[in-house]
Amino acid sequence: xxxxxxxxxxxxxxxxxxxxxxxxxxxxxxxxxxxxxxxxxxxxxxxxxxxxxxxxxxxxxxxxxxxxxxxxxxxxxxxxxxxxxxxxxxxxxxxxxxxxxxxxxxxxxxxxxxxxxxxxxx
Length: 122
What we know:
By secondary structure, the protein is α+β, with helices and mostly antiparallel strands. The protein has four helices and seven strands; from the N terminus they run E-H-H-E-E-E-E-E-H-E-H.
């Protein structure tokens, strides 16, 4: 087993980022930290270190257990780290835009128009 693997390669191989180039870009943008320090893509990661990665509006905090230089399956990837990330917030239900009427329901009445204007802040 290797002593260390590039952090961008490791993040890609354990499926935290979908592509290696997106992992590389995240490192270059300062969205990846190892033990609290911002790192460049070429920094090596070793078992026992904590990697913090911001991805798709979520912060992932993982402790490195195994090193992989090639992309692995999801089950193997989950065994390569211990996830210390905060739980994902549930999505709020989508609310339709205010003042939108169903198609084919005809023209709005004067009362309907007043309510639509009130919703739109007019």
